[in-house]
């Protein structure tokens, strides 16, 4: 399903922070988790994840360490920091408000069939 | 699972293609290559051939231009070293003529600055010349950057305004020649006007913290280049003077009339240009310099602190020492800013960051000592222009250092990212400009230009 670029950009930060709140992870595993969570309906441009992770790192929301993976390659692992958890909680509250408002408006408004819930 | 040699070739090819995008560093490519390989092996395990898997994986990675633009936004410090060389260079063909033209512009600006100072030598009394030095030289540097950044005529004209105002203030105020307020104005005018150069350097985007950081970096590098040029120039002049005097020709008048006005003014413009053109050469020196001088400065501050406490009661500290101490604190702050600008903002805290906090703590200790001494002097002898200036500068530095120490400690303990440290220093920059402007405009009238 195609999701508008701005929406992807806006949701990426809380999504990545949320996934890291589940436990330390690395780039490819994060992408896989996003696919799992959205049942494959949310496709990211994989390369865009890395600048985002670096931005979160610079802001101190995540910390990164290089480890050696089982296959002998260097792999950069990311973990959420306390500051990151605070930001996540804040974002979660914001998104809940937005989602609730949207949910109510979906219920009261007449939607054309293509956008009705359950269709994708 | 083992990937065949053909696939290895293709991955190596992809790697070198990504490496052409210079904002993506090699450790970023490692990270992305790991991603690519995982993706490929997952796709192969569900039945794709290695070739197909490679294509799909590269496709999912996204258009590299787009991705590298994202990287560039995040890592503008990496872009900095190319910004200038390629500010022109996106179209390679158009690059060379503009670079040749640039040399002409630089030489013209350097010559203009030299002529302005020469004219000052001719027509201004000595102290007036000193006080006007910045007004004579810095407009040419600003002009160079306005040209280089292709600023519009309107915004360039706006940049001229502060220089005009400064010239009016500096020359209309009836300073008593050689008085304290005149010296204060002469010292602070260049500082305030340097920020106007900065406005041109960042092409008017002075609200952006990243661009401010670029300007701090530029200031540090420019100082290094200027020192190198001065050193080389000094040696050359010494040799020439020696040779001429051996020949029995007295070239001192020539030196005083031409080299003295043209040398420093031209050197500043040329140094700025060198920073622009050859950033990569010095870029490797900056982190080294800061690493060498931070520990040395800590030792110096501690030694001073002990010496001041041991030798005198704080009450009768000499006024000259207070001014020297202020200068030392300015130097510490410069060192701090320079090392922040040279640091990789993504690196985890290390020993050097600890040293930096120690440096700030030492500076704070000295600063508090100075404030005590100054308060005592003021209580005893009342306010003078020098004391008010020294006190104000001390307060400006104190506020900065206290908060910088706090942020430095949080960073060391992993509470905040380095971005917070950077942001604080960048947000504070206008305070220096404001204080310097105040020292030029407000302090002389307050103390009746004595």
Automatic annotation (TrEMBL), chain A:
It comes from the Bacteria. InterPro entries: Metal_resp_DNA-bind_regulator, Tscrpt_reg_PadR_N, WH-like_DNA-bd_sf, WH_DNA-bd_sf. SUPFAM superfamilies: Winged helix' DNA-binding domain (SSF46785). Residues 16-90 form the Transcription regulator PadR N-terminal domain. Transmembrane segments: none annotated. PANTHER family: PADR-FAMILY TRANSCRIPTIONAL REGULATOR (PTHR33169), TRANSCRIPTIONAL REGULATOR RV3488 (PTHR33169:SF14). This is Transcriptional regulator PadR-like family protein. It comes from Rhodococcus rhodochrous J3. The lineage of its organism: Bacteria, Bacillati, Actinomycetota, Actinomycetes, Mycobacteriales.
From TrEMBL, chain B:
Keywords: Membrane, Transmembrane, Transmembrane helix. InterPro entries: Perm_prefix_1. The chain crosses the membrane at residues 103-121, 127-146, 158-177, 183-203, 224-246, 258-275, 296-315, 321-340, 352-376, 388-409, 429-447. The keyword Transmembrane helix applies. The keyword Membrane applies. This is DUF4153 domain-containing protein. It comes from Rhodococcus rhodochrous J3.
């Amino acid at each position: 399903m195609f999701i508008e670029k701005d929406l992807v950009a806006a949701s990426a930060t809380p999504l990545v922070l949320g996934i890291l709140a589940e436990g330390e992870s690395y780039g490819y595993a994060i992408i896989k988790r996003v696919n799992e969570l959205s049942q494959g309906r949310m496709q990211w441009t994989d390369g865009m994840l890395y600048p985002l992770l670096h931005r979160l790192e610079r802001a101190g929301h995540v910390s990164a360490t290089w480890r050696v993976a089982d296959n002998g390659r260097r792999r950069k692992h990311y973990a959420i920091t306390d500051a990151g958890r605070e930001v996540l909680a804040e974002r979660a509250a914001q998104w809940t408000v937005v989602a609730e408002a949207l949910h109510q408006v979906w219920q009261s408004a007449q939607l054309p069939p293509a956008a009705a819930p359950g269709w994708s | 699972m083992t990937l065949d040699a053909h696939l290895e070739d293709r991955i190596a090819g992809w790697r070198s293609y990504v490496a052409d995008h210079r904002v993506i560093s090699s450790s970023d490519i490692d990270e992305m290559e790991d991603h690519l390989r995982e993706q490929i092996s997952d796709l192969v395990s569900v039945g794709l051939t290695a070739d197909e898997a490679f294509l799909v994986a590269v496709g999912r990675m996204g258009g590299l231009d787009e991705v590298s633009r994202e990287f560039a936004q995040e890592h503008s410090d990496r872009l900095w070293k190319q910004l200038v060389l390629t500010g022109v260079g996106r179209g390679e063909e158009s690059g060379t003529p503009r670079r040749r033209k640039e040399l002409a512009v630089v030489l013209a600006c350097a010559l203009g600055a030299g002529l302005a100072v020469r004219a000052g030598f001719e027509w201004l009394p000595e102290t007036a010349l000193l006080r006007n030095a910045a007004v004579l030289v810095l407009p040419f540097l600003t002009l160079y950057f306005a040209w280089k950044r292709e600023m519009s005529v309107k915004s360039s004209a706006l940049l001229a305004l502060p220089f005009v105002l400064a010239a009016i203030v500096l020359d209309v105020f009836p300073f008593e020649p050689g008085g304290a307020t005149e010296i204060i104005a002469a010292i602070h005018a260049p500082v305030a006007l340097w920020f106007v150069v900065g406005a041109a350097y960042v092409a008017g985007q002075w609200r952006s913290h990243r661009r401010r950081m670029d300007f701090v970096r530029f200031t540090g590098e420019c100082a290094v280049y200027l020192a190198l040029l001065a050193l080389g120039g000094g040696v050359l002049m010494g040799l020439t003077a020696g040779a001429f005097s051996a020949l029995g020709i007295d070239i001192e008048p020539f030196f005083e009339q031409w080299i003295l006005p043209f040398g420093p003014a031209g050197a500043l413009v040329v140094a700025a240009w060198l920073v622009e053109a050859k950033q990569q050469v010095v870029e490797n020196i900056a982190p080294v310099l800061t690493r060498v001088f931070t520990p040395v400065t800590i030792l110096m501050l501690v030694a001073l602190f002990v010496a001041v406490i041991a030798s005198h009661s704080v009450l009768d500290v000499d006024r000259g020492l207070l001014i020297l101490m202020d200068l030392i604190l300015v130097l510490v702050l410069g060192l701090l800013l320079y090392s922040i600008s040279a640091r990789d903002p993504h690196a985890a805290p290390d020993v050097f960051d600890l040293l930096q906090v120690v440096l700030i703590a030492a500076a704070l200790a000295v600063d508090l000592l100075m404030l005590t001494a100054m308060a005592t002097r003021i209580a005893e002898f009342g306010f003078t222009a020098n004391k008010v200036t020294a006190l104000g500068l001390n307060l400006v530095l104190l506020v900065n250092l206290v908060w910088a120490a706090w942020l430095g400690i949080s960073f060391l303990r992993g509470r905040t990212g380095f971005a917070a440290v950077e942001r604080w220093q960048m947000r504070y920059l206008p305070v220096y400009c404001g204080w310097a402007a105040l020292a030029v405009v407000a302090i002389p009238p307050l103390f009746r230009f004595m």
